[in-house]
Amino acid sequence: QQYELILTVRSPLFVGSGQSYQRTEYIYDRRSNRVSVLHRNRFIHFLAENDLADSYERFILGGSTNLHSFLRQECGLDEAGIRALCVYDLPAGDALDAEHSLKNIQAFMRDNAFRPYVPGSSVKAPCARSCCIRPCRSRGYWHPELAGLQQKGRYSGAGISEHPAFCPRQQGKTRLDAVSSLLRGVLVSDSEPISNNAMTLTGKRDAAFGGEVNAINLCREAVAPGTRIRFSLTLDQSVLH
Predict the structure, then answer these.
(1) How far is CA 241 from CA 8, 123, 169, 189, 212, in A?
(2) CA 201, 76, 197 angle in degrees (round to 5)?
(3) 162 vs 130, 137, 157, 228, CA distance in Å?
(4) Rounded CA gap, 220 and 212, in Å?
(5) pTM for the whole structure
(6) pLDDT tens-digit map of 149-186
(7) Strand 104-108's sheet: what is its strand order?
(8) 56 CB-near residues (< 8 Å, 6+ apart)
């Protein structure tokens, strides 16, 4: 059974790729409030071809973060040449401003064409919880170890899916492993590509339980609230019955 699954974003959504951009690897246009990210390989090739690696090193060590000025003045590029070195641009939101220094940017998950997307694995857990785990809980499909922990008050239902003893199983299966799991029958595709105009930058702030908020000197690429993200959801009834 195949369905279109639509996720409507209610708050800035960040799925990190593990990559980040230093302040000397992107251009912030204060007039348009947009950020343009350099294509690293393309930029390194350009520096090597034009014998500008030493100039870029001096630019970095000098403490400046105005990459646009470096590309115009030191590299002699016009606006079209600068755009050719960039791979994408996106709105900066309220994460950057002209009165403060730039921040490092943690990158969102992107495909080979640098289009942002949400991996299906990031969505499967809540889908599986709705399709399999809640029905199994309501029908009493407990593993004895988990039931014993609940009776002793040592494990709450809120984190039920995280316990290794809780593995909703296919009928006739006794082993607690991924092959026997009912969750094999819930398949979620990666999302369709998300437009860069639906992305934004958001600052990172750590909040303590006491109410104190500590602003971190970095920001993240995030999907803006209100964005609708489409996936394909498949329920394999040969597994789920």
Answers:
(1) 29, 22, 11, 21, 50
(2) 20
(3) 14, 14, 10, 28
(4) 21
(5) 0.76
(6) 444 444 444 444 445 445 555 555 555 555 667 777 88
(7) 16-21, 104-108, 213-223, 199-207
(8) 47, 70
